[in-house]
Amino acid sequence: MPRILTLDDYRRLPRPRLRWLIYRLIPTPGIVLVLGQPKSGKTSLALALMRLLPKNVARYAGSIRFRGADLMTLSDEAFRSTVRWRTMALVFQGAMNALNPVLTVGDQIAEPLRVVKWGDRRQVSGRVEELLTLVGLSRDIATRYPHELSGGMKQRVLIAMALVLQPPLLILDEPTSALDVSVQAQIMNLLKRLKREVGLSLVFITHDIALASDLCDRIAVAYAGELVEQGTAEQVLLAPGHPYTRKLLSSMPRLSSPAAPEFIPGAPPDLINPPPGCRFHPRCTFAFEPCVRASPLPFTVALGQEARCWLLDPQRNPHESPAKPSRFK
User: Fold this and answer.
1) Are 219 and 249 in contact (CB under 8 A)?
2) Topology of 3-87+167-328 in CATH?
3) What confidence tens digit (pLDDT) does each residue in 252-289 have?
4) Sequence spans of domains, the chain
5) In angstroms, rounded to a whole number, what is the distance separating the alpha carbons of residues 70 and 287?
6) 227 forms bridges with which residues in the sheet?
7) What is the pTM of this model?
């Protein structure tokens, strides 16, 4: 499958000891779900991809390649004029607070078109109505103000705003977190339809494991500012290779199993002063000496699946580990 976005040794450091290391790709068209607990760096990833990080970032380095072009080589002005909202767009977290309360919905959707001088007034109005129809809203919504809309309608408006310049990649940061279950299902169906009909690639950021099996093609699991595992949805959900992924899945109740949900012992590490080596080792029941000594590399679990865990190292001494790899299956 062709790659639309590849990130290689990419790091963002608002403080010298806080990093986000990410690896691998987003298929096109396809949906990658970034899954992890709160404070694992998921929103920071979205903001960094759009160059919307705060000014106190200590280091912003690595490689972000979009369709073969390295976006990190672009100046801020070139990135703003050629990439942001044209090549990739972001649906911000919190639809309730993301809209301007004193502007109509139509004016807010049309603003990027006016900035780039996309067309005359009639063409802009037509484009706004077209986008509202695309996301399942009536055209008269354009004349309403945000306080007149429900939470699900506001979320649809944000998706329409992100699609206004027809970017091939859409990043969604917790787009269903404040919605009830029935509205969540409507938004999920909308995203799947956009992928199918428009050919969009999506980065879907969430902490809700239940959404993973329903929506995505691939899953990337985030922990403490790193992606610790990535693979197809089937691989990660049915045969996880990292202890954190397995613990995360075990915390969910299952209708088909009498086993009680398990909890992950301990608490996530302080990212200002993270533990040495593998950042999950203080909470991991499989931790052994190499986990404390060095940060693990991404090892192959299966074709198309990788995990950052020393237990997967093909050169390791099996006598060093308190558990054999078969315990993960």
Assistant:
1) no
2) Rossmann fold (3.40.50)
3) 887 777 888 888 888 888 888 889 999 999 999 999 98
4) 3-87+167-328, 97-166
5) 37
6) 222
7) 0.85
